[in-house]
Design a protein that fits this description.
The structure holds 3 protein chains of 3 kinds. Chain A is built from 20 helices and 2 strands. Chain A is mostly helical. The chains are: A mainly alpha, B mainly alpha, C mainly alpha.
Chain lengths: ~500, ~110, ~140
């Protein structure tokens, strides 16, 4: 009995509980435990990825209750890819937090581990209601992380974020309830079968439930017009929390991809391609709106938050094209854009901490200490985020554009993605030049936090190196992404692995 | 019974949506609570309504009621309770820090 | 603090133990009949709430076996660990094991499910009491103003 499929879910949970028991203990001990747990999580994620890279699908029946009666965890290529991305991102966000942000409020490490627990669970579960539960776990942890550090602006943004997500959770339950009422199952593989065989009377009901589900995931993925919560929330959260949140919109994108390919894919009969008409135009509009927001921002953090919206747009464009090539391009682009956005959140914290009162607002201020190093690194991160060569963002976008050529809407897709990239470039160039070139001579007291720049930038550099790694290993990784896309476009394998071969 | 329950869910949802769109934190929290009540009833009804039937296997039973929605409702109640508890604490914190209970933190 | 009824103040301490006994009974009854850790935990919270409202938070806190938050954490830990014996025995996590102990008159059934339920009981009791004790001072402030 291999426990590999559940290990990445259990490890952060146990680490979180231990950290809560040790909450009055030595901070060094808690930090060491937290980092060790995340490193072990990376190891488990790598092992999981290797175990499924040949196309196997690991199914883990919790409590030995067979599917579809019990809850199963299912690890396929897609799940393993996202769990590994999450674990790598978490390590660098955590390393940044160790420089003092983790003691600015209570329970940072506990919430961080519980957030990882929710993320890993959401990626690995094979049950729709269980997906809801893990969404709630990761949201509850994210509420705590979002408010970490306190302050008025943070509280206000946090209240909006929480209320909006509560409304989203209610809609999720309505959708799940409707699907259960019609099909009598919540297991995603079984749902795939039942949806394909749903009687004609019930087709409109399932369609409504599917679109409601899509609406909820679109809220998490920050798809237009449900993206409005994101910039305020991400711009106000503390830097490591915002960096970890870079994966949160990807949970929504993952759920959209999983549900649309598994339950409403080509084999779903009258409900096939349920999202086809909606996803692509909305994703393109999200891309444009995100980039326009980035151009119009007056603060660096808000700008990065809008770039996250735009990257969600690019990602969902890839998923919306719905071919093996485009989904592969999207999956290759996903870790890249996550790491790049997180890196920008971390460096904007380093920049804001050196500008005193001005913080990260786009106003000319005194020259930054070590501005050559900071500016150079900002430049690299901006290149990564905007998707310019030679970094992996360019490869991702290139693969996406090449995949789009086969689609009837290709002029729109190409035009929008290229125009979006241009807008992103303009936005980042403007902020870079305002922050680094237009300096006026320093007056009064020198800005605080001079020391420890190299150490502070180490996690940031680590994230950039991951981006470089994505570029260097582009061959095998894009092969893996391609194999993943082919696997999820053949939901038969997933259904077969979970339910066995017997038709009913 | 079905009509009554459907009406009930509809009324709760309508009240919940109305209250959730108010500008004060307290009615918003109350509205979200109403919405969660509505969704709990809805989930329960999705297992079909039946009276006096056992959910677990019983030799003497003429028929069964579906146990899954009961488990779902229990989970949903726990989660919505936790969320409501959190949002109440947050609303209290917001009122203390911002000086009023407007959802945007300003008196209009 | 507002004056409380003397009858209530005298009645609550014995009532507390009675309610806890009822909670324990519901917890054990959950084996094969309606009941279980969650509902038992809620009854225990009601007991703590009664004490907290009538005799004050300190009294309620004193009567808990551990501080509320710690109780909750231990409960979650217990529930999480209850799944491990099954996993160590070569079955999936959360597979529960059962043992029958012959007592001569009747057979007592022991299982890891009981540990799980006990964990849920502690988690519910601890979490909700912690929440209640955190909110009560706020309510007292409201009354004062």
């Amino acid at each position: 009995m291999s426990h590999l499929a559940i290990a990445p879910v259990l490890l952060p949970l146990l680490a979180g509980i231990l950290l809560l028991l040790l909450r009055h203990g030595d901070i060094r001990l808690r930090r060491a435990l937290s980092v060790a747990a995340v490193v072990a999580e990376i190891g488990l994620a790598v092992a999981l990825l290797l175990a499924v890279s040949g196309g196997e699908i690991l199914v883990y029946a919790l409590g030995d209750w067979p599917a579809p009666y019990g809850i199963v965890l299912v690890a396929d290529r897609l799940s393993a890819w996202l769990v590994l991305t999450t674990a790598l991102l978490a390590l660098f966000a955590l390393l940044h937090a160790l420089r003092g942000i983790d003691v600015a409020g209570r329970h940072f490490h506990v919430l961080f581990q519980l957030q990882l627990f929710g993320l890993a669970g959401a990626f690995l579960t094979g049950d729709l209601f269980n997906l809801f539960v893990f969404f709630e776990v990761l949201l509850l942890a994210s509420y705590g992380l979002m408010l970490h550090g306190g302050g008025r602006a943070r509280t206000r943004a946090g209240l909006h974020y929480v209320v909006l997500n509560l409304a989203g959770s209610t809609l999720f339950l309505f959708a799940v309830g409707t699907l259960y009422g019609v099909t009598g199952t919540l297991n995603m593989a079984d749902l795939a079968r039942q949806v394909a065989a749903v009687p004609a009377d019930n087709v409109p009901v399932v369609r409504a439930a599917g679109l409601l589900l899509f609406g909820v995931f679109a809220l998490k993925a920050a798809l237009l017009p449900l993206h409005l919560w994101l910039p305020a929330a991400y711009a106000q959260a503390s830097a490591p929390a915002a960096a970890l949140f870079a994966i949160m919109t990807k949970v929504g994108a993952y759920a959209i991809l999983r549900v649309s390919t598994l339950m409403f894919g080509a084999g779903a009969g009258p409900l096939a391609d349920l999202l086809g008409g909606w996803l692509l135009p909305l994703a393109l509009a999200t891309l444009v709106v995100g980039m326009l927001g980035a151009v119009a921002s007056t603060r660096l953090r808000a700008q990065v938050a809008y770039l996250v919206v735009a990257s969600a747009g690019s990602l969902l464009t890839a998923f919306g094209l719905n071919t093996a090539d485009s989904i592969a391009a999207g999956l290759y682009y996903l870790p890249h854009t996550t790491f790049a956005a997180a890196a920008l959140f971390l460096i904007s914290d380093a920049i804001a901490g050196r500008r005193g009162e001005l913080a990260d607002r786009f106003e000319p201020g005194p020259a930054l200490p070590a501005h050559a190093l900071l500016g150079g690194l900002f430049f690299v991160a901006a290149v990564a985020m905007a998707g310019l060569p030679p970094l992996s963002g360019f490869l991702g976008k290139f693969l996406l554009l090449r995949a789009a050529l086969d689609h009837p809407w290709w002029p729109w897709v190409l035009g929008t993605v290229l125009a979006g990239s241009l807008l992103g470039l303009i936005a980042l160039a403007r902020s870079g030049s305002l922050l680094f070139y237009r300096a006026r001579p320093a007056e009064g007291a020198p800005p605080p936090r001079q020391a420890g720049l190299t150490a502070e930038l180490a996690p940031f550099a680590g994230l950039l190196l991951l981006g470089v790694g994505l570029t260097v290993a582009a061959g095998p990784l894009s092969d893996y992404a391609r194999a993943t896309a082919e696997q999820i476009l053949q939901p038969y394998h997933y259904v077969h692995a979970v339910l066995g071969g017997g038709e009913r | 019974m079905e009509a009554l329950l459907a009406l009930m869910i509809g009324v709760l949802t309508a009240c919940g949506v109305y209250l959730a769109l108010r500008a004060r934190a307290f009615p918003v929290v109350l509205g979200l609570t109403y919405l969660s009540y509505a969704v709990n009833l809805f989930l329960f009804a999705m297992g079909r309504l039946s009276i006096g039937r056992p959910p677990v296997i019983d030799a003497a039973a003429a028929g069964y009621t579906d146990p899954v929605p009961q488990a779902l409702v229990l989970t949903a109640i726990v989660i919505s309770f936790a969320m409501t508890a959190f949002v109440i604490m947050l609303a209290l914190k917001a009122r203390a820090e911002l000086g009023n209970d407007h959802v945007d933190g300003r008196e209009s | 603090m507002t004056p409380r009824s003397i009858l209530l103040a005298r009645a609550v301490p014995p009532l507390y133990w009675l309610m806890l006994a009822a909670a324990a009974w519901i917890l054990l009854r959950g084996h094969n009949e309606p009941g279980g850790g969650f509902i038992g935990g809620l009854v225990a919270v009601a007991a703590s709430a009664a004490v907290a409202i009538v005799l004050g938070e300190a009294a309620a806190r004193r009567r808990m076996p551990r501080p509320p938050l710690e109780l909750a954490v231990l409960g979650v830990l217990l529930a999480g660990l209850a799944g491990l014996p099954g996993a160590l025995a070569g079955q999936p996590y959360l597979t529960h094991l059962w043992w029958g102990v012959d007592l001569g008159i009747a057979e007592l059934k022991l299982s890891t499910v009981m540990l799980f339920d006990l964990g849920v009981f502690c988690a519910v009791w601890g979490t909700l009491t912690a929440y209640l004790l955190a909110l009560l001072p706020e309510a007292a402030k409201e009354e004062g103003t």
